[in-house]
Amino acid sequence: MLVFDQLQKNDRVLRALAWGIAAGLAVLLVGLYYVQVISAQRFREEQKNQSFRTVRLPASRGKILDRRGVVLADNRPSYHVSLYLEDRAIREQFKARYRQAKGNRRLTRDQQAQLARASRYEVVSNLVAELSRVLREPLAVAEAPFTRHYERSLALPFPVLTDLNPQQIARFSESSAIPAGFDLEVRPIRWYPHQTTAAQLLGYLVRDEGSTDEEEMSFNYRLPDYTGIAGIEFAFNDDLKGKPGAKSVQVNNLGYRQSEIIWSPVESGQNVHLTIDLSIQKAAEVALSQALNEARGAAVVMDVRNGDLLALASAPAFDPNVFIPSVSWSVWTNLNDEKLRPLPHRAMYGTYPLGSIFKIVVGLAALEAGWDPTNIITSPGYAEVGQSRHRIEDLAPPGDYDFRRGFLRSCNKYFVDTGLWVGLDRIVAMGQRFHFGEKTGIELRPESAGVLPTREWIRDNRGAWFDGDTANLSIGQGDVTVTPLQVACMVTAVANGGTVFTPRLVDRVEPPDAFDQRPRKAFAPGRIRSQIGVSAHSLSLLREAMLADVEDPEGTGHDAFHRGRHGPPLLENFRVGAKTGTAEVKKGRITVDKITWFASYGPCESPRYAVVVMVESGGGGGTTCGRVAQKIYQAIQAREKAGALGGIQAVAAISGGGGN
User: Fold this and answer.
1) Omega into 316 within 30° of 0, i.e. cis?
2) Residues near 617 by beta carbon (within 8 Å), at least 6 away in sequence
3) CA 95 → CA 27, 102, 117, 502, distances in Å?
4) Mind listing the pLDDT tens digit for each residue in 472-488?
5) In whole angstroms, how far apart are CA 2 and each of 5, 10, 355, 522?
6) Which of 128, 243, 489, 586 makes an SS bond possible with 267, Cβ 3.0 to 4.6 Å?
7) Per-residue pLDDT tens digits for 119-158
8) In sequence order, what are the residues at sequence separation of 6 or more whose Cβ sits closer than 8 angstroms to the Cβ of residue 238?
9) For 64-78, 339-353, 584-598, which range has the lowest pLDDT when averaged over its residues?
10) Are the C-beta atoms of residues 611 and 579 closer than 8 Å to each other?
11) For residue 538, what is the DSSP state?
12) Among 184, 185, 209, CA closest to 326
């Protein structure tokens, strides 16, 4: 009664208080309505997002195959043992060990966290020790990786043992004593079944956990992925790697995994089919490795009718499997040995002086300029150039030489005089017709261009040029350098009548499934780069000289292809034309190494193959490289007899004749 009497009085303070309470209640009601009604959906989504973790799933890489479909790079199943930390028994052990270690002590928050980490690590170490006894393998868990995984990737199983061998898989699968929480998982892993074969050509992979693949979404976790670093694996990485998938892992409030759903399946990478023939590739690599102890060199086999590469070998080799899952420091150190350098592909990355092989260029330049191949030059066993009488020694004996004999005996005196007569500009112009000093355009990277000393190059790098420099150039010494692949392109043009091809290594890229709708890529054979534009007569004279280099007992390439000086040929019904070469590598005036060459094609009657061999520190072009080439031709003949090389078609643009 009294209260109502007070409210009826005109008390301003009391009225203000009442309005304040009413306003507060109104704000509270509006806020509750906003939270529980208007924002309810948003909060439900946020709760859902907080309880799910997205995981990036790497796709299986596509295969790399040779021209006949033999697999050169594949994927094999790799079995891993993982520990699922969300297992109830393990979590109970975590709690029990923590309580036991804590006892009745009062700990600060930091001390509690430190004790919890130590307790978890101790439990997991004991579990792994039990697994070690079952598998009969020494296993241990490092504390730092485990702690990092627990704090950052708790929603994922903890990897304990990777890439189990068959015995380990059997023990794990058959044992009933495996501790709780462990499980066997299988994932595809890159595998090179032929190990060192075509290693530089195929390339290798490195682990890449940060690849984005231009993904439209972000991931909480990324399972290990790999990316190509060299060779086909690098050049066609986008085709081979496929499209990653994704899964959602539901976690509880502590971050432990509860369930998972794969909502975006992976899309396997596409297959890359090469022009390489595995048998010829292997034969080239074996022959190279047998050339010398710790041989360093390269071999190229090209189809002269269309530019297809049948072998692209480099020595020494390495096993790209060592990079999966990761390469050890000791192996990496060996792979970067300063002398052996097994990682770069010597056929396309290494540049070398080509010695007497360059006499092919000088000879064609002279013949096209009007040089009479019957001209006789008398050699005293050396050449002297200029007023200073710069002396160039000659391995050819003293005597009279015309073009044919000068070529097959590789007479330096003959080609020095010829080169001085034809002049620098015409020699360089002929080298440019073969695209020396330029990259070939092969699909692989990196590729070197080499050096052809044009007037512009001389101006920028030398400043002055003398007759002695032209003399050195005429025998393939001095500033000119090439890759073995460039030499193969040159020999191919000589053999086929004057067509320079862009070498083709990749035939096609296609999905592994015939019903896959992804677009195919086809790389047509016979990509003509240019015509060298020399007369059929000049080419005929050159090819006759190249045949004589192998068939004539005086030829520098004869002994590698015959049983003794006057014995029968080693190849049956298969005559080869060639040029040998030996180039000196100098530091100052001191010769520190030799580069030996054998550049050839065959069969001469109907050219189909160019075979070029280069060996560092070899004994001689004929003695070292010629024998390697002869073994490669034997492999080619065996493949032809088996019909495996049938169906290779010549390009219609090649008519067998020369240019103008």
Assistant:
1) yes
2) 292, 296, 593, 594
3) 45, 10, 11, 68
4) 999 999 899 999 999 99
5) 5, 14, 123, 100
6) 243
7) 888 888 888 888 888 888 888 888 888 888 888 776 677 8
8) none
9) 584-598
10) no
11) H
12) 209
What's the CATH architecture for 278-318+345-511+518-641?
A: 3-Layer(aba) Sandwich (3.40)
| DSSP 8-state symbol, 389 | T
Q: Given its phi and psi angles, is residue 231 left (phi above 0), alpha (psi -120 to 50 degrees) or beta?
A: left
If we measure between CA atoms, which residue out of 559, 537, 542 comes closest to residue 626? 559
How far apart, in whole angstroms, are the C-alpha atoms of residue 547 and residue 578?
Answer: 6
Please indicate, yes or no, whether the overall pTM of this predicted structure exceeds 0.85.
Answer: no
Domain 55-138+149-274: homologous superfamily in CATH: Penicillin-binding protein 2a (Domain 2) (3.90.1310.10)
The two tokens of residue 543 are: 């090819």
Residues 481 and 354: beta-carbon distance below 8 Å:
yes
Q: What would the two tokens of residue 365 be?
A: 């330049």
What b-and-e string marks burial along 364-397, b requiring 16 or more CB atoms within 10 Å of the CB? bbbbbbebebeeebebeeebebeeeeeebebebe
Residue 204 to residue 213: CA distance in whole angstroms: 19
Per residue in 17-72, pLDDT tens?
Answer: 777 787 777 777 766 766 565 655 554 544 444 465 565 566 778 999 999 999 99
Q: How far apart are the first and last CA of the chain?
A: 128
